[in-house]
DNA sequence: GATTTATAGTTTCACCTGTAACCATTTGCA
DNA sequence: TGCAAATGGTTACAGGTGAAACTATAAATC
């Protein structure tokens, strides 16, 4: 039996490494939702996120959309260009500040939103169905803590 | 006061929508770890993931790396090309199956691993420091359930 | 044993992404 | 007022990414 002179390496156990587990879970969930709307509506995930924010908060500027979605402002700018082009978002210019845009869902945008939102909620429901009531509360509390600034 | 003839839209409350919260958390965490090694070691996130898997399980094939990292096989192929080129991974050919490659970290690869791994663990520690012991156990149990196939 | 089918891995293509540079407008301040 | 600094948003560039096609090898079937 050889003595262990050289200290052993200490590889991460990825399967127990929290950042890794979060990444796998998040990608799996987001992608399974995205699969449902990308095909049906020619809607990218970033576009959907922008629409979801505008559904909840009207008359935001592009910068505010970026803040709320935590997306890059360039990504938002491009998503908005496509959404406006497709007639899903109405863009006007802010009174008194010609740099700011004022954004809201169009009728067509709302129509899509009203189909996609329940679908997204259904996925969330399926995911949460794996947990009991106590666990759901725990998860919410834990996420609140981990997401706090 | 106008009567509400048209049914109201029901926008998602993104800030309480589980898939969205998971996505924000996962991106924030992964990126803050990545910031530490991308600059210092010219190492992309996908490359690091490949290295982490090869640290834990030697002599995998590219396909097995893809399975374990849950990355696309094309992404793995390219990450491996860069890692082999940089001398961080040794690639040989499987005895008895000339299609398979046999991958392992090189000395240089291990040296980098041994610097990055503690750094990643430290980030995990900082994140978990926001939770008490009970919450950490709860989180683990919950993630086990949500990640089960 | 020859031929079809499956598998490992790479390349191509079309697109998405972030960083940095940029333009227009507004704000701060001397 | 005039001018520097800050801000909202877009564009250019340099990668990174997945789907599909492709090459090489192995396994299955006849």
TrEMBL record, chains A, B:
Pfam family name, one: MarR_2
Domain of life assignment: Bacteria
Domain HTH marR-type: 15-148
UniProt entry keywords in alphabetical sequence: DNA-binding, Transcription, Transcription regulation
Keyword flag Acyltransferase: no
InterPro entries: HTH_MarR-typ, Metal_resp_HTH_trans_reg, WH-like_DNA-bd_sf, WH_DNA-bd_sf
Protein name per the record: Winged helix-turn-helix transcriptional regulator
Organism: Luteibacter jiangsuensis
